[in-house]
Amino acid sequence: MTAVRAIVAFLAVSVALVLQVTLFPHLAWQGIVPNLCLLVVVAAALTRGPQFAAVLGFAAGVTLDLAPPADHVAGRWALALVVVGYVAGRMRQDVRPSATAVVATVAASSFVGTSVFALSGLVLRDPAMAVPDLLEVILVAVAWDVLLTPLVLPLVMAMFHRLEPARNP
Asked: Rounded CA gap, 5 and 164, in Å?
């Protein structure tokens, strides 16, 4: 990973995290905010591949776990976003993906990431929630992430694509 790519990835995650914890709580839908860090990881996965996205997912997850007002056991978002980065990165193609493929990848990634986070909470009993409540949270989170996909992913994917070195045929 080049230094420029690392700095840009750090800045993208930082901006997403700041917006996620400061602006979006005021726009929460049933107390649930969109996961902008997840969207940055998915954009990196579709552009750079699973290895880069998994590392970025870990970094984004740790920062999300430690950023106030975190009220859960640290490491849950890190685990979820590593899984998201790897799985979404496996969807990477050498050509630009279609809009439908991007939205489907975001929906699947949001479902997987939020489910891993929720299930790890059930295992750790942090916080104690009923399964029907968790299913509602997962569905609302997927809806939020899909709604913000057209606004976030094209910009972040273009940024990561621009940082990608040209491939030799």
From this structure: 8
